[in-house]
Every structure is written in C-alpha cells, then in structure tokens.
Amino acid sequence: MSLHNVIAIDGPTGSGKSTVSKLVAPLVGLRYLDTGAMYRAIGFAAYEKGVALDDTDGLVALVASVSIEFADGEIIVNGVKATQLIREEKISQAASKVATNPEVREYLVERQRLWVQKNGGGVLDGRDIASVVCPDAIVKVFLTADVEERAKRRAVEQSSDHSETRSELVQRDDRDSQRKASPLVAVEGATIIDTTHLSIDQVVEQVVELYTQAASQL
Length: 218
Ligand code: DC
Prior knowledge:
The chain is α/β, with parallel strands linked by helices. It has a single domain (about 5-215), classed as 3-Layer(aba) Sandwich (Rossmann fold), CATH 3.40.50.300. About 50% of the residues lie in helices and about 15% in strands. The protein is built from nine helices and eight strands. It has helices at about 15-30, 35-50, 55-65, 90-100, 100-120, 130-135, 145-160, 160-180, 200-215, and strands at about 5-10, 30-35, 70, 75, 80, 120-125, 135-145, 190-195. A hairpin with a 2-residue loop joins strand 4 and strand 5. Helix 7 crosses helix 8 (about 160-180). 2'-deoxycytidine-5'-monophosphate binds near residues 96, 126 and 172.
C-alpha cells in the first residue's frame, strides 16, 4: 500500500479540528482543505435555490451544477461570497442533513481526492477523511472533547447561548455519527486525542510530531 502525504483529522463538532488543521498545515508544508465547508456550501446552495434538504433528486441536480471555489481564505458558492453565511446555525444543520445523502457525499469525496492529487497531499479535516476520502493517509488523527467543553467553545465562537448551542451540537453529533453513509468514526490505527484539557498549541505539537515520525515512511 502506498501511503499518501496526507494528515487526516476527523472528529465531532467543536473538537478543534479546523483550528488545529489550519495551524498544522504551514508547519509541515502542506495545504489545508476544510471538507466541512464543502458540505456547508451544498447546504447553503440548497437554501438559496429552495431545494428541500430531503429531496434526493433535487440535491443530485444541485451538486451536479454547484460551483464551489476557495480563494484567499474565502469560500465562493455559485458566485456568492459565503464565508460567513455558511457558519450560521441553520446552515450547520442543513450541512449535516445534506451530508446524509450518499450522492452528495460521492460527489464531494471525488472532489476532495482530486484536490489531494493536485496538491501532492494536504491536511484535511472532516468526519470521513481516514475512513473514506483518504484511507492511505500517513497520519490519522481523531480529535474529541467532552461535550460540555465543545459546547462552550462553540458558544464563545458564535456568541450564542450555551444550552441552546449544546442541544444543537448534540443533535448534529447524533446525525453525523448515526447516518448510514460514512458515519463519523475513529478508524483502527487512528491516534485519538482528547482535547478537553489541552491547549491548541499542545494539540498542534502532537500532530506535527506524529507527522514528523511518519514522514520517513513516504
Ligand atoms: O466540520 P463542519 O462542522 O464544518 O461540518 C459541517 C457538517 O458537514 C457536519 O455536521 C457533518 C458534515 N461533514 C461530513 O459529513 N463529512 C465531512 N468530511 C465533513 C463534514
């Protein structure tokens, strides 16, 4: 099996995936792909076009025609700068719903693999990176944290109410880990890091160390 120059970072909402991935990427000389933003883009496009989130045919037609571009830290969906809009709670829930659709997943996984090929590897974060998108990743990390801590982080990030944020987060966790198509899972061989009592720098350090050790296998 040939290993890919990929750091796969999976985990639930609020576990620190994107913060850690963004910091790790330049330290190891790789680019970063936020795969969650791609599911959010589909959720956003569905809202804009009035496609129901459980309308399989509508979603299939939508993914076939949607344009998603990443440029200078911004995400452009069908020509609209949607960087902030895709972070709204209604789009978080929409993303989690469209992510249960196998056709949507197939399309996005294909795009993510092409991105890895084009960039000679990368740091990818999501729910299915080690299990589906890149099972040959040289480093597989599963980040987790206590639900109270994750809700606290999210509430601070979104300036929202803790208990409301917590229940929305639990709802999304349940959907993401219980769906039939590529549920969130820690694969065998993944390094599980519980970030509840760790600083961001400590987690970044651990991931970089894992990569440094593994890079000799490439
Ligand atoms: O990581 P995030 O919160 O931005 O992801 C938004 C939703 O997209 C999440 O609820 C589940 C889904 N998702 C997924 O199913 N697979 C991925 N690789 C990334 C995200």
